[in-house]
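Because discrete structure vocabularies remain unfamiliar, it helps to consider an illustrative case, giving the amino acid sequence and backbone structure tokens:
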Amino acid sequence: MVTHPPLTPATPAEGDGGDVPSLTTATDGHGGLIQPRKLPNPVRESRSHRELHRELLFSHSRGLLPWHRAELPRVLENRRLRQLGEELRGPPSDLEQQLRKRHQRLEEQQERGAAAGPDPRPEFLLVRDGLRKMKAAEAAARQT
């Protein structure tokens, strides 16, 4: 069985004048791995996409004013604005009415709480009184 010496990169001093490519230049320094190519994107390569992109770049570079836009976006925006205006002018929906009632009720509760004012006693005294009442209720329940 014949054994071959391991492959080592050739240097110009060892070789016959340096015209033999070394192993490191053949693999481009990536450890011998083959680098994959990026797959083409059919959408970006389509003609319509390129034309649209070119038109967008052109209109952006020129800074076209809104009234110079295409007709369809202008019509759609006008329709949307008109519908919003009609909704605001019309009677409120059931949900809006319920939300307003709830909001008013919460405001009234806050006003009543602010008018009554906070209890001047510290909180720990209030808790202690509550515990005392619970113990008294338990004692009364045991006696009966």
Summary: Residues 48-111 form one domain. The radius of gyration is 42 Å. Confidence is low (pLDDT under 50) at residues 10-18, 20-26.
